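thread: overnight batch results

M.L. [08:02]
morning all. the overnight job finished for the chain we discussed friday. pasting input first so we're all looking at the same thing
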Amino acid sequence: MKKRTRRQLQGWGAVAVAAVAVAAALWVARHWSVVWPVLVAVLATAVVGGAGWTLLRSHRLAVGQDRAWRSGSAPSTPSPRI
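M.L. [08:03]
and the structure it wrote out:
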């Protein structure tokens, strides 16, 4: 068997990746009725997770600011005059 260069092996790796991508695309096209509900569920999970993370982050920031204010280490801001 002939010794192959790294470039030749990388070329075959690219061909293999392309073949797998084409096979995956064909499978998805044939089984779209099964695939789309999964995609919708993943998207919905990502949206709900992102919203939950945003709410948790906002809560933690507010709690941290409140604790800083209560301890008196918050930067002094002038009170608004009415």
